[in-house]
Design a protein that fits this description.
alpha/beta, Alpha-Beta Plaits, Oxidized Rhodanese, domain 1, 3 domains, five-stranded mixed beta sheet, four-stranded parallel beta sheet, 11 helices, 14 strands, globular
Length: about 350
């Protein structure tokens, strides 16, 4: 019986990836579809993708699949043919805008309750009935209208380093929280055009279906999200209204869309948009750190963490024992001011 999960040490895999000369391509995709047996679907996926040397993080649930992966460049056609011949056919593959192929070091496929946690009973709305998809040119035209409400459906640490001009940026930590905050923001504005965007489209796909179920009829979403928009703007000569960096959920932690740096180092306040995780494995905080502070704090978020990683490895392991790390994200304790004229 084949092993259906990785058994090699993560540090070894990361080292092998960094030293490898193999050209790889980063891509992402999602599809909402009804999966009767998510565990079986997951295991079959692992078998097939392992043969193609696919690496990445994948969520499978009864409502569909959400995949962020990398593939060998020479396997691009083979992978596309596999997609086209499977139940995932007609799925749009979103290829990275800025890519060195070093985005993932192992294949991890997890079965989840939902591919995107929303805190809502699945019977409340039909996720397969989303809002109208917009291409880059149409998105630009519609968002030029001052009466259009443009909403960023991402988390605060994503919008902090990059976003579309004139977008409303909900100061939220999770998609579940964002759904509720945005619902309150647009209440009573059923006559407005509601345009949403996110990284690759999966959050807007679900959010637009949810708001349609609430009675909003002029609901739109950016097809393929920021990733496709940036690629299309570049290849078709379309004015790019996105500023800064696009946060991504892999080893890169960001794709540079424009040269604008709109955020600050969380330690010294200098202009910076480089997300890192604290080097202390007992902390692993996600925060923005400039090169100067990285040197000063030894790639850690604080003096305490810098001192901790100086301890012998056995002592570090002893002190970490029994501690379960949750996702930790730097919060500045601020709430963004919604100053857009249509929200006043």
């Amino acid at each position: 019986m084949s092993v259906l999960h990785n058994k090699v040490n993560g540090k070894e895999l990361k080292k092998a990836l960094r030293e490898s000369a193999q050209k790889r391509i980063t891509l992402s995709f999602y599809k909402y579809l009804h999966i009767l047996n998510a565990r079986q679907f997951r295991d079959n996926l692992y078998r097939e993708w392992s043969k193609m040397s696919v690496l990445g993080r994948v969520y499978v649930a009864a409502e569909g699949i959400n995949a962020q992966i990398s593939i060998p460049a020479e396997a691009k056609k083979v992978f596309q043919d596999w997609i086209d011949s499977s139940s995932l056919n007609n799925t749009y593959l979103n290829f990275a805008y800025e890519d060195d192929g070093k985005s993932f070091f192992k294949l991890k496929i997890q079965v989840k309750h939902k591919i995107l946690a929303d805190g809502i009973d699945a019977k409340v709305f039909d996720v397969t009935s989303p809002g109208t998809h917009l291409d880059a040119a149409t998105f630009n035209r519609l968002t030029d209208d001052p009466e259009t409400i443009l909403i960023d459906m991402r988390n605060h640490y994503e919008t902090e380093v990059g976003h579309f001009k004139n977008a409303v940026l909900p100061d939220t930590d999770t998609f579940k929280e964002t759904l509720k905050v945005v619902e309150e923001m647009i209440a009573g504005k059923e006559d407005k055009n509601i345009v949403m965007y996110c990284t690759g489209g999966i959050r807007c796909e679900k959010a637009s279906a949810f708001y349609k179920s609430k009675g909003f009829v002029k609901v739109f979403q950016l097809r393929g999200g920021i990733i496709k928009y940036a690629n299309d703007a570049k290849s078709h000569g379309i004015p790019n209204k996105f500023i800064g960096k696009n946060f991504v959920f892999d080893e890169r932690l960001g794709e540079r869309i424009t040269d604008d740096i709109i955020s600050q180092c969380h330690q010294c306040g200098e202009l910076c948009d480089t997300h890192v995780n604290c080097k202390n494995d007992a902390c692993h905080l996600l925060f923005i750190q400039c090169e100067k502070c990285a040197r000063k704090y030894g790639n850690c978020c604080s003096e305490e963490c810098r001192e901790f990683i100086q301890l012998p490895e056995d002592e570090q392991k002893r002190l970490r024992r029994g501690r379960k790390l949750n996702q930790q994200i730097f919060r500045k304790g601020r709430k963004l001011k919604m100053e857009n004229h249509f929200l006043s």
